[in-house]
Amino acid sequence: PSDLSDVIGEYAQGGASDVQAAVSAAAAAFPAWSTSGIQARSDALDKIGTEILARKAELGELLAREEGKTLPEAIGEVGRAGQIFKFFAGECLRLSGETVPSVRPGIAVEITREPIGVVGLITPWNFPIAIPAWKIAPALAFGNCVVLKPADLVPGSAWALADIIHRSGIPAGVFNLVMGPGRVIGEALVNHADVAAISFTGSVGVGRGIAAACVASGKKVQLEMGGKNPQIVLDDADLAQAVELSAQSGFYSTGQRCTASSRLIVTDKIYPAFIEALQERMARIKVGDARAAGTDMGPVVSQAQLEQDLSYVEIAKAEGARLAAGGARVACHTGSGKQGYYMAPTLFVDTEAGMRINREEVFGPVASVIRVKDYEEALAVSNDTPFGLSAGIATTSLKHATHFKRHSQAGMVMVNLPTAGVDYHVPFGGRKGSSYGPREQGRYAQEFYTTVKTAYTLA
């Protein structure tokens, strides 16, 4: 929060017995919901989306208050959540299958998609309305029932979304919210025999544990985890454009996005000018109250996260990286005297690809610059990471842009655009340690939230 004395609300903390009750309710509701008319499902999702959009200023205010992203970003996130529900209201009516001939005469074959059952959704704090939306909406659209476990830091946003869903007209038990610590609620959800699938967004360590548990019990699993996203800047890039997209990707949303660019890979000739211009751009970033006009970057989400960010500053210094900007806690720019976890946007230069600052996800407003000689080295360095979510290139060369789109080992590639910022109607996800399982969002969401059935009929 921008003001640590601001009490946002008080919310109930559940336990394992609440997970049991929620899963039981979802399992009881599943037979009717999964076979219900598609128009009723579509109408419910459309109603949810309509209310979210009508209240986006109010909900954005809550989100900014609670999580700390700037008010314009928060309102934008809420708007995206509303659009997601409306998109999947349409997908309810676009369910399709196939009818194909059998190789055996007189036999017809139908291939259909069906819901998988009770789905457990475990969501993070950095997008407390949008990420739950892009998991809940397809789950409901395709006929599943849901138990949502949101992050501990953002119960207000989760409760507001659940309240809207509750009043949409969906039957009791179809959607359920259980809030509480991950080691209790998440573990109970993952290990429950009546939960058919788990969709998780969060840290790599927790994700790997969930994957192991789901494989052992035969659950379907979808994971979105970390990123260490590269932003390449070539000698032929438009300097102003490259600086702006690097600043947007690295520091906006306080760098607390899995798609943020924390590795800036810059070629020799443009390197000095890029560093100077980026430092000037960073000096204009106003850090302060997320809801105040003119604020570009709100506070870090919590004391623990701030301590982690600052610890990586010391790690980078110890490894020999040169601190070019930031690196410390700062006061609120509005001069209001409010106490929050404010940190200056931080830049390290003259770093090496093997440094921890370039290998491990910081998840804060911290970026590092790696100097390379040419495009070929830039590509090799960008792919030299255990992650593979998003990657960007700034260039005016069609040849290099085309080659990068094909050879970047990332799930999403941006050309002359920030690495952070994606559409809601197209697939989202990465490779390597960033993602596991089917993609999220858009029509590709059906790969996770449905199962395929092949039916034969003797004519």
UniProtKB/TrEMBL annotation:
* Keywords, comma-separated and alphabetical: Oxidoreductase
Q: Name one Pfam family in it.
A: Aldedh
Is Oxidoreductase among the key words of this record?
A: yes
Which CDD domains does the entry link to?
Answer: ALDH_KGSADH-YcbD (cd07097)
Aldehyde dehydrogenase domain residues are: 5-454
GO molecular function annotation: 4-(hydroxymethyl)benzenesulfonate dehydrogenase activity; oxidoreductase activity, acting on the aldehyde or oxo group of donors, NAD or NADP as acceptor
Q: Which reaction does it catalyse?
A: 4-(hydroxymethyl)benzenesulfonate + NAD(+) = 4-formylbenzenesulfonate + NADH + H(+)
Function in brief: Involved in the toluene-4-sulfonate degradation pathway. Does not discriminate between the sulfonate and the carboxyl substituents and can also be involved in the p-toluenecarboxylate degradation pathway.
- Similarity annotation: Belongs to the aldehyde dehydrogenase family.
Q: How does it assemble?
A: Homodimer.
**Name this polypeptide is given:** 4-(hydroxymethyl)benzenesulfonate dehydrogenase
From which organism does this entry originate?
Comamonas thiooxydans
Task: Name the lineage.
Answer: Bacteria, Pseudomonadati, Pseudomonadota, Betaproteobacteria, Burkholderiales
